[in-house]
């Protein structure tokens, strides 16, 4: 008789954004006349950049002729893309990453979910709290998080590092020593960042404790301030303790186009086993590459035109962020983030529960946001709005919130 | 201190096709003047069908405008694609599959590798031998296969069901009862098939033993004979015991375009837990959908033009298959497969070891094939050639083999 992985049964509710999706769908069905604006899920709205569109069309044409057709991609991704990544994302910032340390994938969500595969069950993970749900859920699914305490809304075997207004959203080194540390910077959901000194402290700590840092830099392109690291490898010693994940979803609007990559440095080892070789084995066995045409689109993001055009997209979203930030602030809300990230993290008024504020906003303002508590216990009393809407919808949403 | 998943360390060598790739690359580097023909990895060579190309261009254009831009896809895949699948792959064959039983993915390799996630460690798997390496390797990586016995080239906790000329490549019900049974039909690597009666026997057995069948139907489009099932759900009772995986790689040349899907019927349960809900949770947490433009390309495969054009592609490959089959037969080789599948499975001459025949073919004929033993112990003494080459290369390869 087959046995299921009953770690799945311990998971509370469904994936956060599925829950929100269902709530919104139900509201729309009951209120077909209402114009619901979503500033909830971090999904982009700007079309792909012209340089990317051109690369896609060109690659599609290549796929139409036997001479230029592309079948299975190389395990790690096409060299043209990995070279563009090494040059632009790393060498340009003084970091040398070898081409075989870059693993092209269908996105950072898959990578951050799948990376758990190469670690044994008996690792203790530490996450900032609030946190992107995939880190915890994927560890829970693979039996690394202990039991779920429903009353406390947290897992028995996870180290939660509160990030709140009180500590300026900078996680403190935990009392209990973790084995795997998840850091997302610029942060989803809080929109806040670490300075290079903050991050260096974590890198040194991880090396000292022989812990590994899973560093999610999906929002790197939104950094506007100087002292915020674009890559963890800007810190000394990061190559012996850190895996970095990147995405094209937010820097080039690829949420529906799917492309990302993960850096696993060869120096990162457990005894004499390189994590690079483990991830290569997983990648080669359980994945078959991102589509050729999408990898060509990714390459175009690094062209001169592509860079200029995606920079404009980001400036567009960051204008929304500024408007939300300032608009809410003017209304008397306490807000964070939105300077180096497309997320605004606000404190709910009068200590309202996050889900109550979600319902209020949906029902009275017809605006969808994300309840802070959905990201972890320390997110309670906070709420996330994204800057990814159109300028018009963002303005409209603010007007409606003002009237609450 | 972080701990790696040391199941990975038990894996013998690297993934089969990576090993072959490295061997071929080394040969080419030493022999830059040789024209090497690959009939090794099952990679297509025909360009995408015109209807698919048109759908790709149209979808790319949609991505270039805000009004028609697509961000994150629905968790299960777009309804337009799932509806086309339900209608064409199932309803047309008398099988009703609900839309929420279809999970669109980036390909059958990912799905067949990731499906292990929803099962606990203490399942005993049964595989046909020889077998597509991903089934066993992904189970080994998640600790379900026991120890690797190097001398016997097999795992202590896997039930191998030999498929050889002696039993007409039809696996017999095993003595020890398995929990999870992998069946690939038409078969990779042998190119042989089961009849509907053969498969019904397995479905009844699985229901009786409360085992689950992972049914890989990636080569379904190559079936030319009447009594070969296109879907396992043609068998009575399959919905309570079988998960079916499909791919666009071989039926429409999507190896480098990446698209597939998995059917998990809601009736398939462990106690009161539906496997459909577990896979939905995994899909929603660790995957973020196939690209919109690729899903549109998949939809085009089911259009009238798409069907006609991909049928032609398959006829083209099956002509190669016939040529290889008959050509080798005329040379005195004993050959199997190639009638309902694009693979020809030949017995090596004079009981030669599979890898020795690989080396001989590479060095003397400059033809790349796949050694049967790479697919499992009972593959020893066999060798796989694929029909996916160009007609010209296939002819040329046969000429060279003739001269050996």
H/E series of chain A = HHEHHEHEHEEEEHEEEEEHHHEEHEEEH
pLDDT < 50 stretches of chain A: none
Distance between the termini of chain A: 56 Å
Class derived from helix and strand content of chain A: alpha/beta
Largest interface: A-B, 82 and 82 residues
Oligomer: homodimer
Number of alpha- plus pi-helical segments of chain A: 12
Give the strand tally of chain A.
17
The helicity of chain A comes to: 25-40%
Query: How do the strands line up in the largest sheet of chain A?
Result: 2-10-9-8-7-3-6
Report what the structure shows.
The structure is a homodimer of 404-residue chains. Chain A has helices at 7-10, 16-30, 50-63, 79-90, 108-114, 133-141, 196-209, 275-286, 292-301, 304-330, 354-365, 391-402; strands at 37-38, 102-105, 125-129, 148-149, 154-155, 158-162, 180-184, 212-216, 242-247, 260-263, 269-270, 273-274, 335-337, 343-347, 367-368, 370-371, 382-386. Chain A is of the alpha/beta class and 404 residues long. In chain A, the strands form 5 sheets. Chain A has a 7-stranded mixed beta sheet, with helices on both faces. In chain A, strands 13-14-17-16 form a 4-stranded antiparallel beta sheet. In chain A, strand 11 and strand 12 form a beta hairpin. In chain A, helix 4 packs parallel to helix 9 (292-301) and helix 5 runs parallel beside helix 6 (133-141). The radius of gyration of chain A is 21 Å and the shape is globular. At the A-B interface, helix 3, helix 5, helix 6, helix 8 and helix 9 of A face helix 3, helix 5, helix 6, helix 8 and helix 9 of B.
